[in-house]
Amino acid sequence: MGGEVIFFLEIVISGVMAGVMYALVALGFVLIFKASGIFNFAQGVMCLFAALALYDFMAPGGWVDRWFGFTFPVWMAIVLTIGVMVVVAWLIERLVLQHLVKQEPIILFMATLGLAYVLEGVGDILFGSDVKPLDIGIPQGASDWALDNYGIYVEKLELVAAITGAVLVTILGIFFHRTRIGRALRAVADDHQAALSVGISLRTIWVIVWSVSGIVALVAGIMWGSKSGVQFSLSLIALKALPVLILGGFTSVPGAIVGGLIIGVGEKLAEVYLGPFVGGAIENWFAYMLALVFLLFRPQGLFGERIIERV
Amino acid sequence: MFYREAGQFKTSYIADQSILPIAQDRVFVFGFMAVAFLGVPWFIDSYWANAIFVPFLAYALAAIGLNLLTGYCGQVSLGTGGFMAVGAFATFKLITLFPDLNLIIVILLSGAITAAVGVLFGIPSLRIKGFYLAVATLAAQFFLVWLFNKVGWFFNYSPTGQITMPSVEMFGVLVTGPSASPAARYLFCLGFVVLFALAAKNIVRGRVGRSWMAIRDMDIAAELIGIRPLAAKLSAFAVSSFYIGMAGALYFGVWLGSAEPIEAFGVEQSFLVLFMIIIGGLGSILGSVLGAAFMTLMPIFLKNFMVDGLAVEVVTAKHVEITLMGVLIVFFLIVEPHGLARMWQILKEKLRLWPFPY
């Protein structure tokens, strides 16, 4: 293979990997939007919060270390963090969502923005706002296998992220389509009132959905945290996930994945081949423009449910 | 007892349709205006102007603009920061290219330029709706800020990438620049806000405003009764951006004096202005102003209370402030989703019966 081709392949591969990372964040949005129609802006901050909590459970100098004099091993810290995210989900349902049933979507959206502020502030107060390196044993550096056999540079961490993403989507797919709770979730997504009338508890469902998206946020937080450290900017990946979301459609899990891949690859290619002509640093808005162009042809996103309007 | 409209008869349609139909309202509003125009300038000092009044007025104008688009026409926009940047940079370019041009004309022209940009970014709204549109307007936000950060022509190739407002005189008095008096800056902004708030109030009462509201309530039904969505939506984007552009001009020219696009016009600005109209009340001009006042005063109040009152460390206070802001926003949404404007209305209803509620 020629150098040009390899270079191109490398860009595409790193785009795909970045896309999977975006998709991980977008997944959390989709889950909540599907089940409750809430556009949860706090998803990015939830990633940050989960990563902070995880770091605190296992790092020396955290609350656990200071109070009890020991730290947890990685697997136990992850289990505990999942517990924390479930508690957060329960609190959110209890204190916020319960009181906002039947409000306009924009009010709910604003409430999640408020929530984002709260989580960010609480995270800062509890854990401090300095950059924390998160290391849970995910291999870093270039993959030797790809480098030796094909001469292509592939980041190991991104490979792990891609595999994790694939596994996560499979599990979520099975969860949604094969289990009792999954069926209830889909019923709620279809019609709140009909679901209530056949005896599904909306409140339980909401707690479950927010917990699941909290766990997804934890996975995304681990990946992004391992890549660039746990810090405030982690919460800004929400802004990265939004174009993925509108491209794939707010209500579609596969859409989040495909959208993530398109955005990831498109962004990398644009940065390399288009960036130099316009002064660089275009990744901030390029994804949005790309999504916008797609939307002009399919207003509900690639895989979104068809918007049917009646008077 | 004091707030009764008994005995006030309207004998013409004009009297019946007036903005302030009740005599007590007129007395209150004109009294309030008299205090704002004649009273406040006497004792306003640099701190009050810089920290409270001027930012409040600039944000109030931006909030009115966004409310016209989001509250009246139903198009959620997260591009406010970007449009404010357009207004600010247009002012900067105009004032440096034509130093002799009257500042009022400069600001109006900046608004017009922003309106053109707003229409351009409003075109997708004809096809995209709801949250899809909200996210799509983020494209405007990020693209515009990037543009002003990258293309040297916009900031006259200054090495820091900052734009700085020169000192400009109006009627022989400095209104911008570091040596302008607080009272002059305050009055300049106040004039703009009062004039354009009145204009907005009249726009939304007229044909254009009604067509916006029809689009907001159900666009297909509006189309069926003969409202052209193209004209209604794009005019909403144009008028809204015009207001936001002027707000950006005041924000940069009169308040900040110098600005750097990423810091001053980031996406946080968009959210801040959106908060203002939600807390103030969607679809209410008064609400926009109340919301702007609330969101400007709240951080200052919290900070003063914690740092001076409770002697909390500044860094911790910042974190607590963010948390409390979030809590307050959620609290407000739960208690009164229709905002401060609705609270004001309820208060007036109560006042009519006070002190004999039976």
Overview of this protein structure:
The complex is a heterodimer of chains A (about 300) and B (about 350). Chain A has about 300 residues and is mainly alpha-helical. Chain A has 13 helices and no strands. Chain A has a single domain (about 5-295), classed as ABC transporter involved in vitamin B12 uptake, BtuC (Orthogonal Bundle). Chain A is about 75% helix and about 0% strand. The N and C termini of chain A lie far apart (about 60 Å). The mean pLDDT of chain A is about 80. Chain B contains 15 helices and 4 strands. Chain B is mainly alpha-helical. Chain B has helices spanning about 15, 25-45, 45-70, 80-95, 105-120, 130-150, 180-205, 205-215, 220-225, 230-255, 260-265, 265-280, 285-310, 315-335, 340-355, and strands at about 165, 170, 175, 260. A two-stranded antiparallel sheet of chain B has the order 1-4. In chain B, strands 2-3 form a two-stranded antiparallel ribbon. Helices cover about 75% and strands about 0% of the residues of chain B. Chains A and B meet through helix 5, helix 11 and helix 13 of A and helix 6, helix 9, helix 12 and helix 14 of B.
Explain the layout of strands and helices.
The complex is a heterodimer of chains A (311) and B (358).
Chain A: H1 3-36, H2 43-58, H3 63-68, H4 74-95, H5 105-127, H6 144-150, H7 156-178, H8 180-190, H9 192-197, H10 202-228, H11 237-248, H12 253-278, H13 283-297
Chain B: H1 13-16, H2 23-43, H3 46-72, H4 80-97, H5 103-122, H6 130-150, E1 163-164, E2 169-170, E3 173-174, H7 182-205, H8 207-217, H9 219-224, H10 229-256, E4 258-259, H11 261-264, H12 267-280, H13 285-309, H14 314-335, H15 339-353
Antiparallel strand pairs in B: 1-4, 2-3
pLDDT averaged over residues of chain B: 87
Gyration radius of chain A, rounded: 20 Å
**Count of individual beta strands of chain B:** 4
Number of domains of chain A: 1
Query: In which order are the strands of the major sheet of chain B placed?
Result: 1-4
Structural class of the helix and strand makeup of chain A? mainly alpha
Morphology call of chain A: globular
Largest interface: A-B, 52 and 47 residues
Residue share in β-strands of chain A: under 5%
CATH class identity of chain A: Mainly Alpha
Query: If helices are DSSP runs of H or I spanning 4 or more residues, what is the number of helices of chain B?
Result: 15
How far is the N terminus from the C terminus of chain B? 13 Å
Please state the CA-atom Rg of chain B, rounded to the nearest Å. 21 Å
Report the strand count of chain A: 0
Quaternary organisation: heterodimer
The CATH architecture of chain A can be named as Orthogonal Bundle
Number of helices of chain A: 13
**How can the largest sheet of chain B be summarized?**
2 strands, antiparallel
Helicity of chain A, as a percent range: over 70%
